[in-house]
């Protein structure tokens, strides 16, 4: 918890009446010692980084509806009614990014009112758009949402969940959403809270904020591009779901129908097989012949694309799928682009460099490089892909393990090494070896929950399965059963702390393993007390890592009259200087106090404390 410093109440009472308090200076006041000196963590360069220190909307920000203003170091958005969708847009088109802020409901019509990050909006704010929503009643079953406003101006809510904490009016909370293409993850209070694979994207959409039936204020808003994705599973994250030949347990494999089943089943990636027809057109088919999965016969590579296009690829599976066709790679990519989804593309069988080049051309011509992952059993195919499209992540499929998986992974510059389940069971230790080399491990093809459990415990990153919807559900149930290894009790996420408060770090450890703590990247001991006068103004982050799992909680050091009083009283300045500053403080003459503290007349102040007093007095004067 955070404890107020045990200072005489008479001190604060004296300040409130404007009296001087020189008499109190002869009695030493308790001052907590910061342990240790604190640094700051580094981060990628944001494209948007606003602290709202001015008095007008930042350049490039466009208020579309509702009332938006900058006041008191915050952006304030107001929607007067439950039907008003107040919007403000900013930023630039980004495929992969993190948007984050500290926000607070200042008022709300009811618990159902909400605030949202705009993940993909037209700069004008016109429909359609995609958002990530947080309700005032955040612990309701739909306290968090991913949703779309359709071209018809109607709602399509794709995913819902309860937030891990109750937000409510007056509580500041740190929130963030990470977006990768059509996938996104909600973070509340530093905790992953909801995932989706259904973000509708455009090529021109920017970021935004939305408010409904409430007044919400924002601070420290950032938009940061994300580096190329690592496919290694983060501690505590669910298994990655790769849908084998689409949702092939419920629809005919490698068809638009099986892709749709996988998409609706929330698979992160849809696996399809590609090989060329006689006339060189890449089509989506697994076997060397069309016999098993269509009403035709013959080798794929002896048939033209037109001949393949006339085949029925659905009736063999069930009457409901009569008329499904063998897709071309082009049509499959178009479907994923317009309806959502990411493609794990297996280059199947033998290919020439020319046929691999045709595959790459289809991907590039549709601008789908950020949403395609290529795998193959053939190392040469992957080498050609690396030459032609170095931006595409690569995976090597294996029925038996290589003598040195790490060596071949480095040689091919793999993002993932993908063995069969039978091969993996011969040497599960390859997970640690490959992870150390920065390479993920995805196991195929596993449809049994018992094996899912074993593979999760073995640390694999994802599973290629015919049952993507079931694995997604298993992931959700598994996450609900797993208790976080560490819980940050203090500082609370989004807490606003002044200089008169002493911060005691408190982290609950639910594991037998030791917990490692850092404050702004510097190690700190659980239970230790941090003197807030030793912290810089602004945001700070406490990170707890235990048993491979990491949680964070951020808080802000802010200027208040009480905090400024603490800076004055513990400054070590001469009694006359302290008396002058406390008199000005009690009279709320903040600007005068800042000016005085910055002159030689304010004797006895260290350079650091002088700078702090001037900064905080000016901050109070600006309110």
UniProtKB/TrEMBL annotation:
Entry annotated with the keyword Signal: yes
UniProt KW keywords: Signal
Record-linked InterPro entries: GP_PDE_dom (IPR030395), PLC-like_Pdiesterase_TIM-brl (IPR017946)
Keyword Signal (UniProt): yes
Pfam families: GDPD (PF03009)
Signal peptide (residue range): 1-34
Matches recorded under Gene3D superfamilies: Exo-inulinase, domain 1 (2.60.120.560), Phosphatidylinositol (PI) phosphodiesterase (3.20.20.190)
Example GO BP: lipid metabolic process
Superkingdom, taxonomy of origin: Bacteria
Domain GP-PDE: start-end pairs: 239-475
GO MF terms, alphabetically ordered: phosphoric diester hydrolase activity
PANTHER family: GLYCEROPHOSPHODIESTER PHOSPHODIESTERASE, CYTOPLASMIC (PTHR46211:SF1), GLYCEROPHOSPHORYL DIESTER PHOSPHODIESTERASE (PTHR46211)
Name this polypeptide is given: Glycerophosphoryl diester phosphodiesterase
The species this protein was found in: Kribbella steppae
